[in-house]
Amino acid sequence: MVGPHKLISVQNTETGYGSIKVLNRLSLDVQEGEFLGILGHNGMGKSTLIRLIMGYLPAWSGSVHFRGKDITRLSIHERALLGLGYVPQGRQIFPDLTVEENLLMGLQCNIKSKCKTDVDKILDYFPRLSRLLDRNGGVLSGGEQQLLALARCLIGDPAVVLLDEPTEGIQPNILDEIVDTLLRFKKERSLSLVLVEQNLDFILDLSERVVTLESGRITGAMDPKRLQDPSVVQEYVGLC
Ligand SMILES: Nc1ncnc2c1ncn2[C@@H]1O[C@H](COP(=O)(O)OP(=O)(O)OP(=O)(O)O)[C@@H](O)[C@H]1O
Description:
Strands 6-7-8-3-9-10 form a six-stranded mixed beta sheet, sandwiched between helices. Strands 2-1-4-5 form a four-stranded antiparallel beta sheet, with helices on one face. α7 links the parallel β7 and β8. The mean pLDDT is 91. The protein has a domain of 165 residues: P-loop containing nucleotide triphosphate hydrolases (Rossmann fold, 3-Layer(aba) Sandwich), CATH 3.40.50. The radius of gyration is 18 Å and the shape is globular. Helix content is 36%, strand content 26%. The chain contains nine helices and ten strands. The chain is α/β, with parallel strands linked by helices. The structure holds adenosine-5'-triphosphate. The site of adenosine-5'-triphosphate (ATP) has 10 residues, from α1.
């Protein structure tokens, strides 16, 4: 039974690539409004879990529910319309489109004036992008591209963002901006977050709960404040 307060519920799910199974009867619940961090060794299946929730990979068995609705067989597009947002590892912005055009790609919008209003609203959260609107996505720095990928996701006002390793190769000042922006979105728009990350400080800044993923299963949960304790870091550092 899936309770009404659960935003995402993954139950006993298996998936992988070809004949290789990566997730092994994995179960995970994300609560409405929660910021959840997922820690795990390289190659343990963190990105695979995010791709499964978003619909890029089919569930071989088990189920995925969103707000109590069974979405296991829904397409990526149908999941996005329900409120699932995804920022993939590597960002995948359109290099030959301008920043503004990239932002518009995040909207299901045919009314020009509404699109403009939505772009203006999102730029209030991403002031750094305001100065770059006419520039092509491909010439932005890595950090600016990460901000753009996040803004393109948030412009559609998703209920949850599935965020895959946003800190890779990004300067600390932009990481701080990403943290502040996500926390502001949480406060003002009731955003939820599922964050896959190896940067412990970033997980600590954003997550209310951290789970560990090993051998295709969720193996533990902890209060992220415990990551401030050096002995716990020592225990978990091997997971990063
Ligand atoms: N497209 C693919 N085809 C075949 N195997 C894949 C594919 N993508 C990932 N894998 C394999 O699936 C396993 C899980 O990969 P996944 O990317 O989910 O791990 P991860 O925990 O996100 O790791 P990392 O932190 O290195 O990104 C790995 O063994 C990986 O080699």
